[in-house]
């Protein structure tokens, strides 16, 4: 993949404009509420060695030698380090180091306010902008979410944020910017620069729903073809998808294109719910393999749709995207167009620590509905086609040769 293509892949790891306090109680670990997310951008580089969590034996139980060694060294560090020691941070770092010694998908993902959690939750408290920092240390708006305070104020990607209230943002890091925005209780002013002209707008912090689904109606050879793009399997993506699908079906579509390109995964239950919109309960949709054995999971749908379906995938389509693609290919007969998918056949569960920090641990592997392994193999398209460079230079529907191919072959 060339640099232009890499730059065009959605940057799910960029910093959002607001964060919430890291104070949440420890949630119940639910088997079905698993997370199968692969982040393709940089993983947090926590480098502490392969240690294990601190767990003092208070019940007279024998502690493993390895754990006892850790406890002794933990006590030594706390008692002898020359400065102040944050015990909570010390343990968090130890957990991060432990996970670092496992597979690449078992990772420490930060607080419950991290982008990882925000995107999976599907909503957050903020103004609706996603920001980054350019080479000149300017805070730049990377994207603006629809129907948010920021979009209503007219902010656009590429705007340079100059001031928040009367405070300059020059040289300010993203954490500091997020902290300042987070503290705003009422309307506040944001000054931005666009085309060398500065303008100040009023903003407020509000509940922001992230839209992971977009749709439209298309036509080809006198056929009505619905198009739905799904960017992530967040908590609210299934409801958004259902609403979009219902709207298209009410217009009597003859076929449907589902675009999962760049979709790196999300909640498995969300994928189940979306797949169940197309298949009745007689259809298996995936299999889970764990230490306890292997189990098939079935659709919970009431009917199987009749119209033709084509699915667009690429090398960034992973995890839940691959679950959905394989299920609709094997059980529905969907046509797959694009590039070979990523090949992530493992399942992670998300755990939250008492201080709000989170990590995900690989606990299972998954197979397709027919028992095929996709780990490190991916899903091969029925119609392999690489996205043309013309699209990256001018991202129009006409230049999207993969989409055009899907429109061409959906009724073959």
List keywords for this structure.
globular; 7-stranded antiparallel beta sheet; disordered N terminus; Pdz3 Domain; 6-stranded mixed beta sheet; 3 domains; alpha+beta; 25% helix; 2-enoyl-CoA Hydratase, Chain A, domain 1; 29% strand; 412 residues
Terminus-to-terminus distance: 30 Å
What is the CATH topology classification name of the largest domain?
Answer: 2-enoyl-CoA Hydratase, Chain A, domain 1
Helix content: 25-40%
Low-confidence stretches: 1-60
By CATH reckoning, the class of the largest domain would read Alpha Beta
Radius of gyration: 23 Å
**So how many helices?**
11
- What kind of sheet is the major sheet? 7 strands, antiparallel
Mean pLDDT: 80
Q: What structural class do helix, strand and pairing data support?
A: alpha+beta
Topology, number of strands: 22
Q: Name the CATH superfamily classification of the largest domain.
A: 2-enoyl-CoA Hydratase, Chain A, domain 1
In CATH terms, what is the architecture of the largest domain?
Answer: Alpha-Beta Complex
How many structural domains can be distinguished in the coordinates?
A: 3
Relative strand content: 25-35%
Q: What would you call the shape?
A: globular
